[in-house]
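ok trying this again, last paste got cut off
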Amino acid sequence: MKRGLIVIVAIVAVIAIIGGSLISTYNNLVDKQANVENKEAEIQVYLQRRADLIPNLVNTVKAYAEHEEGVYTALAEARAKLNSASNTEEFNEANESFEWALSRLLVVVENYPELQADKNFIALQDQLEGTENRIATARKDYNDAATDYNATIKKFPNVIFAGILGFEEAVLYEALDTSQFAPIVNFD
């Protein structure tokens, strides 16, 4: 009888240890996944801030460069894509279009020295620059959190529990191929 009781206690202890380990692992993975989601939301907030600044910047530029309609149209379309994106891949794709259109606008600005001296334009450009810096920092923070999370779900024994519990790798923000080249703007 004593031997049977010892075996039952040992089995219960092993189950309790495994259960505690599973609960601890699950809670750790949930915390890391929530951190990744928080960092991604932060990027989206800054992307939205930038998208909200652009119409003011465009209106200021329009006052000086009325014949640059193609640039304004491209920015409006890119902004709409960015606002309708619903996941990281869509945000990356929409952001690529947005950054390309924005760089075209900045090329237009270079052709109007009087615009570059306008107080409203300077203020908007400063806000945009600050927002771009925040976006870069937020992307770095997101990638750091995502890398930590991804490494955690790949480590043993987490890899077993993560697979069973449905934890998937987070997608990292990467520089897009087109970001390596300056846009070509033709005013013909």
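PB: full thing came through this time. The two ends are 96 Å apart (CA to CA).
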